[in-house]
Amino acid sequence: MREFAYEAVTDPEGAVALVAADPDACFLAGGTNLVDHLKLGVASPRRVVDVSRLPLASIVAGDDGVRIGANARNSDVALHPRVQADLTVLSRALLAGASPQIRNQATTAGNLLQRTRCVYFQDVTTACNKRAPGSGCSAREGYGHHNAVLGGSESCVAVYPGDMAVALTALDATVVVLGPDGERRVPVEELHRLPGDRPDRDTTLAHGELIVGVEVPWLPDGSRSAYHKVRDRAAFAFALASVAGVLRLDGGAVTELRLAWGGVAHKPWRARQAEEALIGRPLDEASVHAAVDLELAAAAAGPANAYKLALLRNVTWLVLRDLAGEGAR
Amino acid sequence: MGARLQIEIGLTVDGAERRLLVDTRSTLLDALRDRLGVTSPKKGCDHGQCGSCTVLLDGRRHLTCLTLAAAADGREVVTAAGIGPDHGRGGLHPVQQAFLRHDALQCGYCTPGQVCSAVGMLAEAAAEEVTLDDAEIRERMSGNLCRCGAYVNILAALRDVARSEGTG
Q: What is the ipTM for the molecules in this complex?
């Protein structure tokens, strides 16, 4: 591991100033992803700025929604009474992620900014355009079980691995970012980016910008939400595919629908074409499958990852069917 | 600003105040084992996947292999060696007693992590007012692997403790 200087900071502005001024600096929060990358050689900063003691861990429920501090731990967010009661999709997504120990350590901002688990990205002996720009993509010709089916590029077919961001995408959350010139707000859908020819850039944040919180609006009256994740084993694994859904039915017709997919693209995938196809119509299996197929018209899958297309079709129906059933009770 | 490649930290480990100078790259696990001689937490995968390095950090179960020692400055560490009454000097914790009763180990390497994780799980379940049935225990202990496959008896031990504590 390369030597690095360690600084624990006490104010967010100071943290931003330190990292913004040094291209070889990075933020450290819960450490669950970064410390692993330091050991693997995936990350080799010269300065590590520890933001874990910044007073940004509160979870405040207000009239319009809940404001989650960047340092709020995954387990604390998942078990917050208002999150559990009113933002089911967020609580379920968090509890479907990682292990209890990691959920006790991992922070909200760190979870958002976790990097892909593509095996080639994490193996420094292989070519990877995300880790070493210009070196090539081993995943396109190699082990492709986890590869993206949507939005991939010649340079990169890695997937964003997280669950929480998929739920936040279905919840139309906003990320609050502090930079050298002050705060700005970024819709969570615009935080992560597609790889294009710059897969080394996971997000739209500039170097030195610090996520300080996430604002999640309450659901519209009568809406319900759910999260379903499919993994290779029953616990402690990343999503092969996951579906976050928000649904409201009035008189049997869909009047509110938000769908976000995880594990299938370089970012949480908001399935807007599928949403539009279903709005105003009754829900049934055939129409949901058709709507998903519309969204998947642009999908690109090979023999190793084509199973994800079937998963998206079936799990999207499962989630919406269950939400519709709850609504009818 | 001079780069600080070493940093002095303070830790409370199983009730004892410890001060030490650590390399900024050192994990909490390596600092405990190699610098302080606290070998109860074990290095299994060293990548956060096996749970054998689990301790209670400020009362919550936590992976020491994914924590920089520098970032743990001022915190309280409880390992399986100090989890019993009187920081472990007064006998075994009920979870440890149940592991013995149910033969919940073979080689024992993962056991300190299993014990700390189980104690954390019991506290979490009590706070959440959740009943620990077998499915809950399996899910909530999923961060701790046992390569010997002693899961059946680990489950039996934790079912036993949960029932006697009123959470099972």
A: 0.97
Helix (H, G, I), strand (E, B), or coil: what is residue A93? helix
Matching CATH number, B88-165, of 3.40.50.2000, 1.10.150.120, 1.10.3210.10, 1.20.1250.20: 1.10.150.120
Low-confidence stretches of chain B (pLDDT < 50) are: 1-2
Mutate to test the interface with B, among A7, A35, A232 (most CBs of B within 10 A): A35
3-state secondary structure of A245: strand
Q: Kindly list the structural domains of chain A, giving each domain's residue range(s) and its CATH number in brackets, ordered by start.
A: 5-50 (3.30.43.10), 224-328 (3.30.390.50)
Does the pTM exceed 0.90? yes
CATH class of residue range B7-85: alpha beta
Residue to substitute from B1, B21, B24, interface A, most A β-carbons within 10 A: B24
Residue span(s) of chain B under CATH 3.10.20.30 come to 7-85
